[in-house]
Amino acid sequence: MRDELAPLSARSTILSLMLGAHPNPLTPADLARAGQFFGIAPATVRVAATRAVNDGDLVRSGAGYRLGERLVQRQAHQDEAVHTADKPWDGSWEMAIVVTTGRPGPERAVLRDALKAHRLAELREGVWTRPANLQRPRFSDPVLQDFDAVPGQDPAELAAYLWDLAGWTREAEHLLERLTSTPEPALRLATAAAIVRHLSDDPLLPVELRPADWPAANLRETYGAYQRELSELAALPH
Known about the structure:
alpha+beta, Methane Monooxygenase Hydroxylase, Chain G, domain 1, 4-stranded antiparallel β-sheet, two-stranded antiparallel ribbon, 9 helices
């Protein structure tokens, strides 16, 4: 549980606003106004935006600020679940097996993070898998062998072994309750950011393998409503 959630920093507030609201470019005045809504002084917002531009998280043009390339890709990953899940599932699983050994630790860590971001889980060292139910390109890398397989064991038991579905459900329900019961804007934004992180860990299982009380759709709908709040905030005249 994240009972210790605190308001985001000025920089994280700006980036979360832009990630969540999918706005057109925001002017410095737009950002200052939004910052005040979340309890952040305009001067602090200006400093945070300048640093975000220097680090490539934001790009500034004559029209205002927009997301940098890295965050555009992150935004696409946030939206992935809406567009790729629930394709009819034929019972097959993706498998990606690492066939190259002796690589440096940092390279192995990068590959692991990429496989996790692609929503695969590690069955054993170097063997990654998931149900083949997503409408997206398969993960590919020169050090992998990639193919489909059908597990010999009960696929629901395998899914429960690979992912902590009960733990994911508990945290989702906690975040749902927190977002709906918290009136303070800065803490609501911090909770919404935690929801985004939690949804990025949703394995996007086919319906057949989800627990009966799987709350992912409700969590996405609740976050979608909050995104609309952010969009309205970003669109307010100044």
